[in-house]
Design goal:
Elements lengths: L1 H27 L11 H74 L4 H11 L4 H13 L4 H12 L2 H16 L3 H25 L1 H24 L1 H8 L2 H25 L3
Helix pairs in contact: 1-2, 2-3, 2-7, 3-4, 4-5, 5-6, 6-7, 8-9, 8-10
């Protein structure tokens, strides 16, 4: 019965999360050319509700299996998993943006050399680029079309992306807008710099792949072993959790696991 309840809760959480994500994407994407989104408060409420689905489901599952303590640990684990997933998604998008940015700059440079203005060249680069760079340039072009000055639109793009490569491109365009100069040559140098940075980042990720995998295994293995003992020797685990010393040992072990996980991530972090 407990297994059925846990399975139903997990399936319901995944289905609800998928439905809310699809609905939010369908409502947000058509507004790219409309300017500010209406009712931002309602959007924040929807996103906040979606963020609580996974912790609530895991917490309910832990409550069914292990009581109040299991519910608390499950909810905390769900929140941590949600945060890690969101961080990983942002990092994947950032890496993809950096990899596509050099090609987009190449298209922008070719358009400027052919005689187009910078806004026209950005529209051309938008059509030639892939997502997520295309999405970023779509918003920049939309801002320019509704009357936002070119410099402000580019600065807003750099601020939204939080990418040093995008900030480098924005700085080059802003410098050309203020003082003039050979923009295609400058953009060629910027594209070459970005390609070198992307190549170095790929090499670093390849060299640290084994260490990152070891960190994940070391972090997940004790939790899996604890779950295995809970299923096979539940009476012994309940006896350990029923004493203050056993509960303190479990909490200390969880704290050390979390600390070691983030420690390994910090060691592998490359500026």
């Amino acid at each position: 019965m407990n297994g059925v309840a846990v399975a139903l809760l997990g399936v319901a959480a995944l289905c609800a999360d998928r439905a809310v994500r699809t609905t939010s994407r369908r409502r947000i994407l058509p507004r790219t050319h409309r300017g500010p989104e209406p009712r931002p408060r309602a959007g924040r409420i929807r996103l906040g509700t979606r963020a609580l689905l996974l912790p609530l489901a895991v917490g309910c599952a832990g409550l069914v299996i292990a009581g109040p303590l299991g519910g608390l640990v499950g909810a905390a684990g769900g929140l941590a998993a949600r945060r890690i997933r969101r961080h990983r998604h942002r990092k994947i998008l950032a890496n993809r943006r950096d990899e596509q940015l050099a090609d987009a700059i190449g298209a922008l440079t070719a358009a400027v050399r052919s005689g187009m203005s910078v806004p026209q060249a950005m529209a051309y680069a938008m059509r030639e680029a892939g997502s997520p760079v295309r999405d970023d340039l779509t918003r920049v072009v939309a801002d320019i079309e509704v009357g936002v000055p070119l410099g402000e639109a580019i600065d807003a793009w750099a601020e939204r992306s939080q990418s040093r490569d995008v900030q480098l491109v924005a700085g080059a365009l802003d410098l050309h807008r203020r003082s003039g100069g050979d923009l295609p040559a400058v953009l060629d140098q910027v594209a070459a710099t970005i390609r070198e940075r992307v190549a170095v980042a790929r090499e670093v990720r390849a060299l640290t792949a084994q260490a990152r995998l070891s960190g994940w295994i070391l972090g997940v293995l004790p939790i899996g072993f604890f779950a295995f003992l809970w299923l096979t020797s539940r009476r012994d685990i309940e006896g350990a959790l029923g004493t203050p010393a056993g509960l303190a040992s479990v909490l200390l072990g969880l704290g050390l696991e979390v600390g070691s996980f983030f420690w390994i991530r910090a060691l592998l972090e490359v500026a």
